[in-house]
Design a protein that fits this description.
The structure is a single chain. With 263 residues, the protein is of the alpha/beta class. It folds into 2 domains: 1-28; 37-74 and 105-255, 2-Layer Sandwich (Ribosomal Protein S5, domain 2). It is built from 8 helices and 12 strands. The strands form 4 sheets. It has a 6-stranded mixed beta sheet. It is globular. The relative contact order is 0.15.
Length: 263
């Protein structure tokens, strides 16, 4: 009886450190950020009461469709993300776990990150304006474009800004909307010469797009597989590599003539 009791006590005593280690692993902060679908905004319309795109110095036309830029929402860099949070998010389609350094530049605090994202957004807007005017062979000294989108940072709306400017100025080149009256969403960076770049988080952005009524999603071609992984029903993917390919695809989709690529 004594030896049996002693073994039970030994098991109980040894179990305490194990339980403590498990508890520490479950609740200790980890270098991850939890992300989920964020807001979308129609760049052809208004955001928080102000037009997203304002153009002067050239004639514009009204548009009937929507071009919705998409976002993801991530936990703050100083948020406590535990193993339990990671496991819970792993089994959900509306959340993703991303390395903290992939979401936020390493070594920056919240204020520095906000400033960095604001600067990236401004650079993206400038590149979008130049790319659109270059595409239309318009001089930036004659045409003034102002882009305004509240509470959003980063460069991933570049492609949609560019398409929005082109749609307002020129449409499909024949006086018709690029959108064909559809709600089209997408993501992608843009360079001055019209190259479209990858952005990350596309699987969550497709969910945000479908939630807000989009039926077509423009995705950087390099991220097709990520976008297909959890693609919502009723959302068509169109891969793009350049501004020209994006415009050509939308024109073909609107007119019903020509081929529209797919992932």
């Amino acid at each position: 009886m004594l030896s049996r009791l002693t073994r039970r006590q030994a098991v109980a005593v040894c179990a305490l450190p194990v339980a403590a280690l498990i508890a520490t692993a479950v609740f200790a902060p980890l270098p991850f950020s939890l992300t989920q679908p964020g807001m979308t905004a129609n760049v052809l319309g208004e955001n928080k009461g102000a037009p997203v795109i304002t153009i002067s110095g050239a004639p514009t036309h009204d548009t009937s469709g929507q071009l919705r830029m998409t976002t993801i929402v991530a936990t703050n860099p100083d948020a406590h993300v535990s193993l339990g949070d990671v496991i819970d998010s792993w089994f959900r389609t509306d959340r993703a776990v991303m390395p903290l350094d992939a979401v936020y530049p390493s070594g920056q605090n919240v204020k520095e990150i906000e400033q960095h994202n604001t600067e990236e957004m401004k650079e993206s807007q400038d590149a979008a304006t130049r790319a659109a005017l270059n595409y239309l062979d318009l001089a930036d000294k004659d045409v003034k474009v102002t882009l305004k989108l509240a509470d959003v940072g980063g460069p991933s709306a570049g492609l949609l800004f560019t398409l929005g400017i082109i749609d307002k100025l020129n449409g499909d080149g024949g006086g018709r909307d690029l959108t064909g009256g559809r709600t089209i969403a997408g993501t992608g960076t843009i360079t001055e010469d019209g190259a479209v770049g990858a952005v990350g988080g596309v699987a969550l952005k497709t969910q945000a797009a479908r939630r807000d009524g989009a039926t077509v999603f423009l995705v950087p071609k390099a991220e097709c597989s990520d976008a297909e992984a959890q693609l919502p029903k009723g959302l068509r993917l169109i891969p793009v590599t350049t501004l020209k390919s994006a415009v050509n695809s939308l024109t073909a989709l609107e007119s019903g003539k020509g081929s529209v690529p797919s992932c």
